Amino acid sequence: MTNSKAIIANNISIYNQAHKLVGPVSFTIDQQQHSIITGDNGTGKTSILKAIKGILPIRQGQLTFPMIPKSENIYDWKTKHIQFVTFEDRDHLFYTKERYYQQRFQAFDNDDLTVQAYLSENGFDHSNSMHQKIIALCQLSELLSQERVKLSSGQMRKYNLAKALIQLPKLILVDNIYVGLDEEHRDTINSLIDALASELDILFVLSGKYTTLPNCITNEIALINRQPHTIHNIESIKSLYAITDHWPQTDARIAINKLTVAYGDKHIFNDFDWAVEQGDKWEVKGVNGSGKSTLLSLITRDHPQVYANAIQLFGLTNPSIWDVKKEIGFTSSELHAYFQFPNTSCHRIVEQGLHPTLYDAPAIRPDQAELITALFDYYNCVQLKERLFRVCSTGEQRLILLIRALAKNPALLILDEPFQAFDQITIDRSIKLLDSILTEEHTLLFVSHYKKYIPRVVNKQMDLDSRLKRRINL
């Protein structure tokens, strides 16, 4: 390859149907220059990766690829030599089988399709020495026989990379790879990318927010949002959050007694006790794999082992899953991964969150409609209300799911990594909102791998690494 340039973008604008996503923007990526694209929510980080891959069209400007030999057809080359790795799950076999949000926790709901079966569907050849090298570099050799649906967040990052790498691409585009990972796993991913970049002849282009980067990343393409960040009045949301007559008439929220959860010989919890009263605001802390998602899924009654344990919710010993969901506002990365609604607007996604199931459609109360409007106004995202959820950026989708949880003004608010894929402005705005509207009566469970993102209103901590409960910020 003689040309030192790999990709040149000259005043490009990117569209999804009639909706302009990016532009105009210009940048250059040299060959052997591993890069990352950064920027605020909605600036087009993911859209640029999709345009490079050919998923989204360029309507204005030019996007050229000097790295492609002139003798090659550009479309054939991009199909064969560019891989796009995303947080979303797009396995063919995964979608040809019935899937549901609770399935990861259904230990008895066997999915006989293993990691190796999914990789084989995507071209993995156990006798191919390069494929074996990629599996070893991605630390998946011991996981090939494990059921794919039960992989942890960190394992899923490695699996998605391996699935793309076994195609032996020349260019790999990786979107939001750090989402949901604690510091240790972020460092592991950085080391993995450095090893892959050193061992394989592949150009990496990442996108998203980061704290530290792989050493091989030497080029940052920073997208700037030139739209003013309007600060809207928070008082209307505070007044609506003072309305609590729809809550259960009890101070009890969660009572867990001698909780035991195991997968085969592996115990996640053993004789674990925890009590949450009305007004408590807990940080739930722990590294990836410490049991945070399992604990929260037991509380929301999505986990099958809830029925083998003594867990009281809102004073009820054995409430139905629908009675519980009626009282809980919830968002998480796992919930986001299962949100596949191709023709649903963002406003409708938020309205659906007011009901126990996605299929209920009773009329919403005037105060609920007012709160939804106030939340869209506060986040300066009124333009998203009628936009289809599927065409929004990852950060915008996560914001809509946070608004969905908040719009319920619930008796129990569970926010599991709620700021994933947010820019700093949206994070700061969200922390300010939670600190301002949550009263002494509101109950919160909050999970984040970043200490600086914990709202000041949080006053207790459950450390699942040590099983230690303590009061904080007092």
Which secondary structure elements does this structure contain, and how are they paired or packed?
Blueprint: E1 5-16, E2 19-30, E3 34-39, H1 45-53, E4 58-64, H2 74-81, E5 82-85, H3 92-96, H4 115-121, H5 129-137, H6 153-165, E6 171-175, H7 183-199, E7 203-207, E8 217-223, H8 235-241, E9 252-263, E10 266-277, E11 281-285, H9 292-299, E12 310-313, H10 321-325, E13 328-331, H11 333-337, H12 346-352, H13 366-378, H14 394-406, E14 412-416, H15 424-437, E15 443-447, E16 460-463, E17 468-471
Parallel strand pairs: 3-7, 3-8, 5-6, 6-7, 11-15, 11-16, 13-14, 14-15
Antiparallel strand pairs: 1-2, 1-4, 9-10, 9-12, 16-17
In short:
This protein is α/β, with parallel strands linked by helices and 474 residues long. It has helices at 45-53, 74-81, 92-96, 115-121, 129-137, 153-165, 183-199, 235-241, 292-299, 321-325, 333-337, 346-352, 366-378, 394-406, 424-437, and strands spanning 5-16, 19-30, 34-39, 58-64, 82-85, 171-175, 203-207, 217-223, 252-263, 266-277, 281-285, 310-313, 328-331, 412-416, 443-447, 460-463, 468-471. Helices cover 30% and strands 24% of the residues.
